[in-house]
Specification:
The complex is a heterodimer.
Chain A: H1 2-17, E1 21-27, E2 31-33, E3 40-41, E4 43-48, E5 53-55, E6 61-64, E7 70-73, E8 76-79, E9 83-91, E10 94-102, H2 113-123, H3 150-163, H4 175-178, H5 197-207, E11 220-226, E12 231-234, E13 239-241, E14 243-248, E15 253-255, E16 261-264, E17 270-272, E18 277-280, E19 284-292, E20 295-304, H6 320-332, H7 342-354, H8 360-368, H9 374-383, H10 386-399, H11 411-424, H12 429-437, E21 441-442, H13 450-453, H14 458-470, H15 489-499, E22 502-505, E23 508-511, H16 539-546, H17 554-567, H18 587-599, H19 604-613, E24 640-641, H20 644-654, H21 661-684, H22 686-699, E25 702-704, E26 707-714, H23 718-723, E27 742-744, E28 753-755, E29 761-771, E30 775-782, E31 787-791, E32 794-799, E33 809-815, E34 818-828, E35 833-842, H24 857-864, H25 872-884, H26 887-898, H27 915-919, H28 939-947, H29 949-956, H30 959-962, H31 967-979, H32 985-997, H33 1001-1013, H34 1016-1019, E36 1020-1021
Chain B: H1 2-18, H2 23-35, H3 53-56, H4 69-72, H5 92-103, E1 142-144, E2 150-154, E3 159-164, E4 167-173, E5 179-186, E6 191-198, E7 202-209, E8 215-222, E9 226-231, E10 237-242, E11 247-251, E12 257-261, E13 268-273, E14 279-284, E15 289-293, E16 299-303, E17 307-308, E18 315-316, E19 319-324, E20 331-335, E21 339-343, H6 345-351, H7 358-363, E22 369-372, E23 379-385, E24 388-393, E25 397-402, E26 408-413, E27 419-425, E28 430-435, E29 439-444, E30 450-455
Antiparallel strand pairs in B: 1-2, 2-3, 3-4, 5-6, 6-7, 7-8, 9-10, 10-11, 11-12, 13-14, 14-15, 15-16, 17-18, 19-20, 20-21, 21-22, 23-24, 24-25, 25-26, 27-28, 28-29, 29-30
Helix pairs in contact in B: 2-5
The chains are: A alpha+beta, B mainly beta.
Chain lengths: ~1000, ~475
């Protein structure tokens, strides 16, 4: 009987692990144990025919040939004496031989402070944020968070605290051992056990003299974690051993499996022991984050059920997305849902792409359309609509924090409109991003410069840029190395160096010439991320680095955002929290989407198109027993509450308080036609207008060209600012292209040239003056420090310090006939100050007001050119300037800008904050985090829908939309409008009965609308 | 029968008296060590605390161990309920002690049911010091004898006494606390007052025979190590401060405790008696110095000059040392930061006020005088003689300042490690400094030259330092 039992056990074991393996593999592939304290965790893997791997570390037979050289503690190899030997690993008929070299067993090898002592404290949680790693420590004892500041920790542990924590002569008397052993009361609890390796290491470190960081202590440069590829743990084989090797800058490698820390991203899927053994729990995916000092890697684990019971019925596949999603479902044995109905699809895709309910007419037409490609066609139509561009712009505007409170003077609308146009024209996303990140100039003129205008310092610029474009939340790294990611403080300030030169001056975005970023802890000047700048603007290199096709984040973050908008959940979730400890739920899918996005020229609409056309997008929300618990693998569609703006518009539409989308389109077309007609009329008078203006200019005594400014140039004092030439001042024809001249609005408006409080230095102002004839001219200017002025390269005014009344400064010189070049240099000795200039006398007489041109300088300059010398662009500028003078056209354009925006929240760049919208999670736009928009159901939402003011107001007039219809059609239209579907017979019956029994038909209609609004079918997207 | 039963119980009662368990000696040390971390003054898991007898006793039914929750949780079969949680259980002999003590009526033999038990524990018996030192220990305290001929200093569980001329180990006073943090000679060199303990758990202030090493008296025990100690000018009062935040004053001859004060919120690092004996000045890691009434221990005023936002030498600094200048009667306090503060306790009180006018007061220059010492990580120890003040600290340099004008007279350079202790002997013009590395240096205070340097560890041989197990 014992024999039989033994036989049976052997047999059953071999059925579990035998015959299917193609080969076995052991990590590491060679062992070099060069210290008494070296050890090595073996990981033994068996590869099955189907490509799946299985961890055999605890099942394989491991034999060491020469026990005088090395020994074994389960699957850990320990050195014994100098020499060489082999380890033989056997699994059934497979075997692997692993050479082992043991050396330096009689040499001393003192414990290293950073890589061992501090790593041990990290492993035991001593320096965690909630314990002694908190900014002020705990109970008077402070360590740096996860040991990132070894000097601080050395002080704290050894000599600091009046040397109270260690005792070299009697290590066991050390407080730093007695507390975690609970030999002395420790509020943090028991952290060490007397026989554990951590205790031995710390005790030995103290025994050896408690030495701090020594010169040339080897630094860990990277870690290697095995397994590198995602591992599938298929029940009942739910174990995976991890092995961690640390590479040091002295070219040595050590096994740090027992010094590394492990953390699981999903406790219910997999847990991990402190020795690196992963234990699978429930079906799903998890990342095990492995941290050793500042290095961090993740091991991806997928737990799959047993393979026998599940039958995979291949579903319909529309494109590559389906295949990649289905691969995953098949692996995890989750059933894919079937395709949704036309009604559901229409409502879903319309809401997702445009934010609006489909118009009733469209619903009827779509449902009765038999063509097989009608879904694809609908998707294309929607992607080409303005509504799509507006709704997507709204979502982008959320992230870019576009609000009229911050971006005043119409800049919010200007910026939002620019984004909307970019989306409408489907501008490549890399181009949009580069334009935003490299924008300079007046944010009233350069729309993308508003990105910087809305961020008030370098830190918020770093954090916003990282979160929006790189999906990285790096705020933590401002003060210490990021606890869950490879982002270090160095990285933070190196990105900071990219943006530190930005000078935000009342909506003017300029680059300072210097302003280096220094690291707050080390005081080192940081090199900008993306590489040392070739020019004064490090943003160029950064933007270039960010938007290359090979950038690890850029494309992935954007496709993930689009995926999340359409599917209700990102492949990485939260969508702006990309880190190795928060893995994508489907790696190949995200890679494929990102690759094709990058290689297709960052075409956003194409991504939307691909996803919407996939069967995955078109799945029903109906869950089955075999996929109900799936939350992240897209086996079925998610039921989603409409967003605040969507719901607002849907209610408005159903209650008839806004024009239907079709009607809107008609109105818009009408307006556009009118606009075109008016443009034709205005353009027809274009040449007349130009002639008359040119004539007028030629009769004027003088007229002015555009005003340009250059600088600020920093100087050490006012004298230098005044006397040093920062450009070739006497060259009276200044090449505008060569220098970074900024176009200024015009001289005639006495535009101020501003200096800030601490700007000691100079600025230049340059302008052309056309004079009809040779004339004496008198300039008046306002300035309180120094001014120099040149006409045609000749210095005619030079005052380092204006001491008298700064408002009554005059300078005289002579204009020659034709073009004159005037150059002013203004210096500032400190203190805020501005400069304005104006011509007040010509040949001793005040120029008559009629003699000034009243045209903007840049228009004047074009008009001054002979017609044939004007470029196409210049012609265009003239034409649009001429159009802008026409009141009727201006009114039409105003209406066109207003049309839908006033009525539909989803179609506006910055819907105002109402109680209703706020209740449903409208973000305040104070952070770049997608999490600012909340989708949590609240009591207030129910109250708003049942009897909120806005809903009540809209309902009051809702009968008007439907009253002219017969009862039957009325019910049908109501359902088509609210649910995009026809009512069932029983629904028609009930509704009609309600109308019949009501005393007042209008009230009955209002009641029906109210009832529809308050259903789940209405509030949710299915 | 009844009579017999009474007799028997009387007899057994008598028998038990012989072996009766002492709560303070036998039970409290065990419970404090194993339970106080979770059930003490800082943390009270399950709403139960044992740091005073009154609290501890809430879970005890005298005479009935099995009805006493305190005992029941020690022996619970379920590992999730058995205390200490997530730790090894108490030794069975210790559990038996608890059982027996409850069975015997759970009597309290301490002095105060409401006071912290830890501070009432009887003085510990200390183990032997090692014959030979494997490695040196940091010299945290040293003191010249009144005649300046010998030097006492801290060792491991001992005080070592060294002859100065020539330097040689004369005597070892063994079986003292683990660490000695403060030392004073007394009775013309016949006795030593020794303060020290084990960090985080125990503090002791004792009078020791300077020849035999016998502990003549333990003035008191503390919950954490004793850091500072001072004698008044008359030599009849003794004050000590501890990392447990307490300051206590004792009558030197009777050993009676005169008062206790706990007005600091962190370790009390040093104490000093004013020249007129009216005040005790204490310094603390809580960045303040306090002035206490020397007779009652009541708080006279708080000196905030080590944490100021306005004026000279701003910042927030821990304070480590204090000493009264003998002639002027002004007190000097020092710690982190760059300057010694010289101030007058009475004026400090006059300059103090309410929180509301704090900024106004701080913006005005107070009466404090600053002696800039220019030592990087701060000064740990200080001593004064005549018009000179000596400081020593983390950059391994000791300095002598002229008290009047703050000028540096000598810089004593040579230590390669942090200096923790300093003392001077005006009679013999000698200064002694002791460092983290165990090195003691003797200096000539007239010339500033080093006279002798040695490692103050009996039997220690630098060439054979043993770091390997």
């Amino acid at each position: 009987m014992p024999h039989l039992l033994a036989l049976f056990i052997t047999f059953s074991c071999s059925t579990v692990i035998a015959k299917k393996f193609e080969r076995i593999e052991v990590f590491p592939t060679e062992l070099n144990l060069a210290s008494k304290r070296s050890k090595a965790q073996l990981v033994i893997t068996g590869w099955l025919e189907n490509g799946e791997a299985r961890d055999l570390t605890r099942l394989a037979k491991i034999v060491i040939s020469d026990k005088k050289v090395a020994n074994l503690n389960r699957s850990i190899v320990m050195p014994v004496g100098d020499g060489e030997t082999d380890i033989l690993i056997r699994v059934d008929e497979h075997s692997v031989k692993l050479p082992v070299r043991v050396s330096r067993q009689s040499a001393t090898d003192p414990i290293r402070f950073t890589t061992e002592t501090l790593a041990t404290l990290t492993k035991k949680g001593c320096n965690a944020g909630s314990c002694h790693g908190s900014p002020h420590g705990k109970a008077g004892f402070s360590l740096s968070l996860f040991g990132f500041d070894a000097a601080h920790d050395e002080l704290s542990l050894i000599r600091g605290g009046l040397n109270r924590r260690i005792n070299v002569l009697a290590p066991d008397e050390s407080l730093m051992l007695k507390k975690p052993l609970l030999k002395v009361p420790h509020v943090g609890g028991k952290k060490l056990i007397q026989n554990g390796s951590a205790y031995h290491l710390l005790r030995q470190w103290i025994f050896e003299g408690a030495r701090g960081v020594i010169k040339n202590e080897p630094k860990c440069v990277k870690i290697e974690v095995y397994p590198k590829q995602e591992r599938v743990l298929r029940a009942p084989h739910l174990q995976q051993q991890i092995s961690v090797l640390a590479y040091f800058n002295n070219k040595t490698v050590r096994d740090v499996t027992d010094l590394a820390t492990y953390q699981t991203s999903k406790r219910q899927v997999a847990t991990v022991e402190s020795n690196g053994l992963v234990l699978g729990r429930e079906r799903g995916s998890a990342a095990i984050t492995v941290r050793y000092l500042e290095s961090l890697e993740s091991v991806y684990i997928t737990v799959a059920p047993e393979s026998e019971r599940f039958v995979w019925l291949p579903p319909q596949e529309n494109n590559g997305i389906d295949q990649l999603v289905n691969d995953r479902l098949k692996l995890l044995q989750i059933e894919p849902a079937s395709t949704c109905s036309d009604s559901v699809f229409l409502r879903r895709v319309h809401l997702d792409l445009t934010g609006l309910l489909p118009p009733t007419v469209l619903v009827r037409a779509f449902l009765s359309n038999d063509s097989s490609n009608k879904r694809t066609k609908l998707i294309n139509d929607l992607l080409n609509s303005r509504e799509f561009a507006r709704f997507q712009a709204l979502q982008m505007a959320d992230l870019l924090r576009i609000t009229p409170e911050v971006l005043t003077d119409g800049r919010a609308t200007f910026f939002a409109k620019w984004i909307e146009d970019a989306i409408y024209k489907n501008l490549p996303y890399d181009k949009i991003t580069r334009q935003i990140l490299t924008a300079s100039g007046d944010s009233k003129v350069v729309a993308p410069a508003n990105f910087y205008a809305s961020l008030n310092n370098t830190e918020s610029t770093v954090e916003s840029t990282a979160q929006i474009f790189m999906g990285a939340r790096i705020q933590c790294a401002k003060c210490h190395n990021h606890p869950f990611e490879n982002w270090t403080q160095d990285d933070y300030y190196s990105i900071g160096a990219v943006f530190n030169r930005i000078n935000r001056d009342k909506g003017m975005i300029l680059m300072n010439n210097s302003d280096e970023m220094t690291h707050p802890r080390t005081g080192k000047v940081m090199e900008p991320w993306g590489g040392k700048a070739d020019s004064a603007d490090p943003r160029l290199k950064f933007a270039e680095w960010l938007t290359t096709t090979s950038n690890p984040w850029f494309a992935r973050v954007m496709v993930n955002r689009i995926w999340a908008r359409l599917m209700g959940r990102g492949i990485v979730e939260p969508v702006d929290d990309f880190r190795s400890s928060n893995p994508p739920s489907n790696v190949p899918l995200l890679n494929e989407l990102a690759n094709s996005f990058a290689t297709n020229g960052f075409n956003c609409k194409q991504v939307y198109r691909e996803i919407c056309n996939s069967q995955v997008y078109q799945r029903t929300t109906q869950a089955s027993e075999l996929n109900a618990d799936d939350n992240e693998n897209f086996s079925h569609a998610r039921v989603r509450l409409l967003t605040a703006e969507q719901l607002h518009d849907a209610i408005s539409y159903v209650t008839g308080s806004v024009q239907p989308a079709g009607e809107m389109l008609r109105m818009k077309t009408e307006l556009e036609n009118k606009e075109r007609e008016r443009i034709a009329i205005v353009d027809s008078s274009q040449s007349n207008w130009e002639d008359s203006q040119t004539k007028r200019l030629s009769k004027l005594d003088f007229h002015l060209g555009a005003q340009w400014s250059l600088g600020f140039f920093k100087a050490k004092d006012q004298k230098e600012a005044h006397e040093k030439a920062f450009i070739e001042e006497t060259k009276f024809y200044l090449d505008l292209a060569k220098q970074d001249w900024q176009l200024q609005p015009d001289w005639e408006q006495a535009k101020k040239v501003d200096f800030q409080e601490n700007e000691i230095g100079a600025k230049y102002i340059y302008q052309k003056i056309w004079s009809r004839e040779h004339a004496k001219v008198k300039f008046h200017f306002v300035a309180d420090d120094g001014v120099r002025a040149w006409l045609n390269g000749r210095l005619f005014y030079d005052q380092i310090q204006i001491l008298e009344n700064p408002n009554t400064q005059y300078a005289e010189t002579e204009l020659s006939s034709g073009i004159n070049y005037i150059l002013f240099k203004v210096n500032n000795k400190g203190g805020a100050f501005h400069f304005t200039v104006k011509i007040v006398e010509l040949d001793g007489e005040k120029p008559k007001s009629a003699s000034t041109s009243n045209l903007p300088g840049h228009i004047t300059e074009i008009l001054a050119k002979p017609f044939l010398n004007r470029s196409d662009d210049q012609q265009k500028t003239l034409r649009s300037y001429h159009q802008s003078l026409d009141d009727k056209l201006a009114e039409l354009r105003h209406q066109l800008g207003l049309d839908v925006r006033l009525q539909y929240a989803t179609q506006r760049p910055w819907p105002e904050q109402t109680d209703f919208l706020k209740a449903f999670g409208q973000p305040k736009r104070t952070s770049p985090c997608a999490c600012e928009r909340t989708g949590e159901p609240t009591l207030e939402q129910a109250l708003q829908l049942l009897n909120g003011r806005q809903v009540y107001d809209k309902l009051t007039g809702s009968n008007k939309k439907y009253e002219s219809l017969t009862d039957h059609t009325l019910v049908e239209v109501l359902f088509l409008t609210a649910y995009s579907r026809y009512p069932s017979d029983s629904e028609i019956g009930k509704a009609r009965k309600y109308i019949d029994h009501s005393e007042n038909r209008d009230d009955a209609i209002r009641d029906l609308v109210w009832a529809l609004i308050n259903t789940q079918e209405f509030m949710f997207q299915h | 029968m009844r009579k017999l039963a009474v007799t028997v119980s009387l007899l057994t009662g008598l028998a038990q008296v012989q072996a009766e368990i002492s709560f303070m000696h036998d039970v409290a040390p065990v419970l404090l060590q194993r339970c106080e971390g979770c059930h003490g003054s800082k943390k009270s898991k399950g709403d139960y605390r044992i740091h005073t007898f009154e609290f501890l006793n809430q879970a005890v039914t005298p005479g009935k161990p099995h009805e006493s929750y305190l005992y029941a949780v020690l022996v619970d079969d379920d590992p999730d309920f058995r205390m200490p949680q997530k730790d090894d259980s108490l030794a069975s002999s210790d559990i038996e002690l608890v059982r027996q003590w409850i069975a015997e009526g759970a009597n309290f033999d301490g002095s105060d049911r409401k006071m912290s038990l830890r501070s009432q524990l009887p003085p510990r018996e200390h183990p032997q010091s090692p014959e030979l030192y494997r490695v040196p220990v940091p010299v945290t305290a040293l003191a010249f004898s009144p005649d300046g001929k010998s030097l006492a200093m801290s060792g491991h569980h001992e005080v070592t006494v060294w002859g100065v001329k020539p330097v040689k180990l004369i005597r070892r006073l063994k079986n003292l606390p683990l660490r000695i943090q403060t030392l004073k000679w007394h009775a013309d060199g016949g006795q030593l007052i020794v303060g020290g303990g084990s960090p985080g758990e125990y503090g002791e202030l004792a009078l020791v025979d300077a020849l035999s090493g016998e502990r003549l008296r333990v003035y008191g025990t503390f919950e954490d190590i004793v850091l500072g100690m001072a004698l008044n000018q008359a030599g009849d009062r003794l004050t000590a401060s501890s990392a447990d935040r307490r300051v206590r004053t004792y009558d030197l001859t009777s050993g009676k405790r005169c008062w206790e004060s706990s007005v600091h919120s962190d370790w009390v690092t040093s104490v000093a008696f004013s020249i007129d004996n009216n005040f005790v000045v204490t310094t603390s890691r809580d960045q303040t110095a306090k002035v206490l009434d020397a007779k009652t221990g009541e708080l006279f005023t708080t000196y905030n000059g080590h944490r100021q936002k306005f004026g000279e030498f701003t910042g927030r600094f821990k304070v480590f040392a204090s000493v009264f200048e003998p002639i002027s009667g002004l007190v000097m306090t020092v710690g982190e930061g760059k300057a010694i503060r010289v101030w007058n306790p009475v004026k400090a009180e006059e300059e103090s006020g309410t929180a509301s006018d704090m900024e106004k007061r701080f913006s005005k220059a107070g009466h404090t005088r600053y002696i800039e010492h220019g030592m990087g990580l701060g000064v740990f120890a200080m001593c004064a003689s005549k018009n000179l003040v000596y400081t020593a600290g983390a950059d391994g340099v000791a300095k002598a300042f002229n008290f009047e004008d703050g000028k540096v007279l000598h810089e004593f350079k040579g230590h390669l490690d942090w200096i923790y202790s300093i003392d001077c002997s005006p009679k013999t013009s000698r200064l002694a400094t002791g460092s983290y590395s165990g090195e003691v240096r003797l200096w000539d205070t007239d010339t500033g030259e080093v006279v002798y340097s040695f490692i103050a560890a009996p039997g220690y041989d630098v060439k054979q330092a043993i770091f390997d197990n």
